[in-house]
Structures are given as C-alpha cells and as structure tokens.
Write a structure and sequence with these properties.
By secondary structure, the protein is an alpha/beta fold. The chain has a domain at 5-178: Rossmann fold (3-Layer(aba) Sandwich), CATH 3.40.50.720. The chain contains eleven helices and eight strands. β5, α4 and β6 (125-130) form a beta-alpha-beta unit. The longest helix is centred in the C-terminal third of the chain and has 21 residues, at 209-229. It starts with 13 loop residues before the first strand and ends with a helix.
Length: 281
C-alpha cells in the first residue's frame, strides 16, 4: 500500500493535467517530499513556463497535450487541475487511457462527481478536492469527497499526495462542497480584503501608506499564527485581548453590532455558496 510519495514509481506514475497555481503547488510539494523525478508526467499547453519552474525534471516529463502521451501509461493517480472551460475536452482526451486501476483527483471548481462519472464511466474511481491558494506555501487545506468506486487504498494515496501541501479533511456528503467552497475555497480572498480594509482605515487615521499596509498584514499573519499554535479557540483569544472599556472593546462594539461583520460574512458566504451551485449546473 502506498503511504509515502517516494514509493510511487514510473510504472504507476502521477499524471498532472494542468500546472497552473494549484497544479504547480501540488507538484512542488510532491517533489519536495521525495517523489521520484521519473514518476511524474505533466500535461500543460504552456510548457516553456512550466519547464522553467521545474528544471529538475527530465524533458520527457513535459507534454503539451494528452495526445503526446503513450496510451499504455498506467498512472496510479491523475490530478486534474484545469479550468472548467476546458474540462470537457480534457476528459475526452483522457478517455482512451487505461484507467481501471487509476483514481482521478479533480481540484477544478464546480465539477461534481457525477460529471466525471458521466464522462469517464461509472466504474471509475473519482475524488473531488477543494484546495485553497495557501497550499502554494504549504499552509492550505483541501476538503475531499469520493464516489463509491474509490478504494481505501486510493484514498490513502490521495491523502499522502495532498498532505505534502496542505492539511486534508474528508466529507461523505458532496452537497457540503458548496459550503466548503464558500468558506475555505474563497476564504483567502476574505482575509486579503480584510488586510486591505484595515490598511485603508489606518491611512484614514493618518498613518503613512506603507506603514499602514505592513501593520495590517503583519497583524493578520501574526494573529493566524497565534491561533494555529494556541490551544485556545478564536473566541477565547479574542476575549483575551479585549479589555472592558478599552480600545479593542470600542472597535468590536461596531464590528459585532447586529448589522456588523457577522451578518456581512453570512451574506457574503451565502452568495458564494449559491454561485458554487450555479457553476455545478
């Protein structure tokens, strides 16, 4: 049983289709954690850019199309990280391969398990993953669900690969993926916008632009690091820094008002969830 990426061989390699931000992050994590250079094949139309990122790999690892890969390739896992707009063609090109012992891992937004079953057959093992962009620095989280053709061995393989760049959680109910997308998938943008808003407010209070931006950025990143290392909940940490009648308390009276941040966040995430459902149609 494969528990470690270093045990994957060229006989049953990892095939990565699409090497943009997410695909490249996963590949970097695999190589950094011992994946053999002969045990990976990449398909991406922008080969010059990808080759410049992964100079350690041999030329034969790079392909600009699935048409250029021998159909006898027997990958242990195919990681699909392409844009939804080109997914149909990708699966048509993938269909001629022998995938009977392969698990498909899609990290494309808005594509449900049934979509892949319709395209590749209902006997195909399929995992749907929702990563977020912090995986590019090894700090993200990926939530996965699978169809009933996926074996425990294939789930463990997927786990081993994804844990090189993120923590991993599994859910049984795929319908929760829309909420996952709204929270963790889109979540990094919420934090980035919070940094923007804090920096802008700091400027309005008279702080120089660069200083205000640095204070906002370092405050957010430091607070997240504190939360990860602490055994306390976010609620407890927030209470610990809020002295009655102090400056933080004054600010939180505004943010925690009935029409404050919690209400805005719920509305925003409801919008994101609804959009995720639309994209799956």
């Amino acid at each position: 049983m494969v528990n470690n990426v270093s045990t994957i061989t060229s006989n049953n390699p990892v095939l990565i289709i699409g090497c943009g931000r997410i695909g490249s992050a996963i590949l970097s994590g695999l190589l950094d954690n011992g994946l053999k250079k002969s045990a990976v094949s990449i398909v991406d139309p922008y080969l010059d850019l990808i080759k410049s990122k992964f100079k350690v790999l041999p030329d034969k690892a790079f392909n600009n199309s699935l048409d250029n890969i021998n159909k006898s390739l027997n990958p242990s896992i195919v990681i699909i990280a392409v844009k939804p707009a080109v997914m149909d063609k990708t699966l048509i090109d993938l269909k001629p391969f022998n995938l009977t012992k392969t698990v498909i891992l899609s990290v494309a937004a808005g594509k449900m398990l049934k979509y892949f079953e319709d395209k590749l057959g209902y006997e195909q093992a399929i995992i749907r993953g929702m990563p977020n962009t912090p995986i590019s620095v090894g700090e993200g989280i990926t939530v996965c669900c699978s169809n009933d053709k996926t074996t425990q061995k294939q789930k463990k393989l997927c786990n081993s690969l994804l844990r090189t760049v993120s923590s991993v959680e599994w859910i049984k109910d795929e319908s929760l993926m829309d909420a996952v997308t709204a929270l963790s998938g889109s979540g990094p943008a919420y934090l980035f916008y919070l940094v923007e808003a804090m920096a802008s407010a700091g400027e309005a209070l008279g702080l120089p632009t660069k200083l205000s931006q640095k204070l906002a950025s370092e405050t957010i990143s430091g607070s997240v690091a504190l939360l990860k290392k602490s055994k306390s909940s976010a609620t407890d940490l927030r209470k610990n820094v809020t002295s009655p009648g102090g400056t933080t308390s004054a600010a939180l009276e505004v943010m925690m008002a009935e029409d404050g941040l919690a209400k805005i966040m719920r509305k925003a995430m409801q919008q994101a969830k609804a959009r995720s459902k639309e994209l799956a149609q």
